[in-house]
Amino acid sequence: MKGNLLNGKKGIIFGALNDKSIAWQVALKAREQGAELLLTNSPVALRMGTIKELAKITNSSVIEADATKMDDIENLLTESMKIFGGKFDFILHSIGMSPNVRKDIPYEQTSYDNMLKTFDISALSFHRVLQTAYKLDAIKEWGSVVALSYVAAQRTLSGYNDMGDARHFLNQ
Length: 172
Fold this sequence. Notes:
Distance between the termini: 35 Å
Order of helices and strands: EHEHHEHEHHEH
Structural class: alpha/beta
Largest sheet: 5 strands, parallel
Number of helices: 7
Shape: globular
Number of strands: 5
Helix content: 40-55%
């Protein structure tokens, strides 16, 4: 269903890894509705995933950025404004990762360092992005910023480990 709901709108989508990612599906729908997109993910996610395939489908640029590094975020937003020819209309934050989940470490064996990394990637990165966008005056007036969460932010799901805690933290 083609439409023009987002015709002329420009935005950055964080977190599309593969076609099972919510961010991937949002990117497809946003493009279908006329949005111009820039896609981003961490260096490791770019190697693991298929975001370049999504970029071809949506005619989007891809900029590598580690959301735990302020310099990467600032570079991402600065380069985005160059590509878009100025400020943009929206940001979609759909980032979530836990070393405990990736390494199949049970919740009761979660290390403090891994928990901090989970919070840093999955929740605090949202605040970094907002802070940098504000500093650079990167988002147009009436622009939107959306942070996606997951049902585990509201209820316990077996095997989701500390990610539920991180997503809940983001919702606060």
